[in-house]
């Protein structure tokens, strides 16, 4: 479900609105709206706009944020643009417009007077002397990865000192160092979106999990070589006004040197439900972020960012029964691979002879496939099996891997290792073909049967997939060890670029 085409909209990622924001996009509509706002301001305040406010109204671009539109409008009308909350004219922000708080910083709504951009102003207060390192590391990581599309756009950063007097029995002068990062404005976090999920329709639920997961995998893949984010969790996964997924908070990220797979660190990692087991032993591995992505997938499946609903239940018991059966089996296999306790085996890394294809392979996983893609995959395998005569000896290994995969898939569904035969006979009308199925020596004959039904009786394909839902993902996993087999049609089966074919 959901992995093969672009979705126009994803309601599950929409943030709660503040009133009814104006959403006109044409330049003439924006200009008209700004003029109306300016007139309303003059009427309400009984005084003309100052030149500075007039310029800000003229430059502000309504519609950049749907969620915070009304807050911006009210703020611009208030005229509260104190010098304390800007630096060299770069940005204004207001102390009452708080949109987020974290362990190290508070985030405010902001606006850039030079071009009217709506921004987020992240202020690290270092009065206790414990947030400086986090600020420096986050800025360095964001600058380094500024070109990665899925990383929140870094605009600028600066430091300033604030001096004030504390009132009490004895007045005393106190200094506070503020460290400020200006970022593109997001509508909210995945955690906020999930908090609004109620009863979910299966297709919409799976589509959202696919979209967010593939976005995260693509971001992690594109990060500067060997950067480990270390803090991937729903609260650090951001959603912009167009529904794009972006990653924030690089304050505890680490970098592996060239050729390095792991490192030791004493720094704390992500929140416990999303922390890989090796991090608890003060270790990091190049697959550590994959573990966190897998746990985020679990949280989305549960609609619970805290993961409390997980309890001691098995994954099979937790995946909604309303999901299509092939999606359920694929989800379970992918999440288990991503959250493998052994970092060397995580994400199918142990099965790949060339680890540089790791992310591309994961992104081609059957969980991200539609029903049609599943049927196409099994049809291609049927063609491959039918054409295996007179092939090089190493191709026999591929067939044997598929033979074992089909037997394992049948057992996973609670059948005998050749349990597919009863299902195939039930669907086959021709008596002679039924006898041939019953006498089949190899389980891989199922692939030929699948191909024939999809090509000649396509209406039976979806029903066959529903009755043998684990076949696709188990066969896909069986082929992973054969990616470097000479002449193996990797791109045909995995749906990714031919550049991976060796």
Automatic annotation (TrEMBL):
Keywords: ATP-binding, Kinase, Nucleotide-binding, Receptor, Transferase. ATP binds at residue 122. SUPFAM superfamilies: Protein kinase-like (PK-like). Residues 1-35 are annotated as: Disordered. The keyword Kinase applies. Residues 93-368 form the Protein kinase domain. GO terms for cellular component: IRE1-TRAF2-ASK1 complex. GO terms for biological process: IRE1-mediated unfolded protein response. InterPro entries: IRE1/2-like (IPR045133), Kinase-like_dom_sf (IPR011009), MADF-dom (IPR006578), Prot_kinase_dom (IPR000719), Protein_kinase_ATP_BS (IPR017441), Ser/Thr_kinase_AS (IPR008271). Residues 357-455 form the MADF domain. It comes from the Eukaryota. GO terms for molecular function: ATP binding; protein serine/threonine kinase activity; RNA endonuclease activity; unfolded protein binding. Pfam families: Pkinase. PANTHER family: IRE1-RELATED (PTHR13954), NON-SPECIFIC SERINE_THREONINE PROTEIN KINASE (PTHR13954:SF6). This is Putative LRR receptor-like serine/threonine-protein kinase. It comes from Symbiodinium microadriaticum (Dinoflagellate).
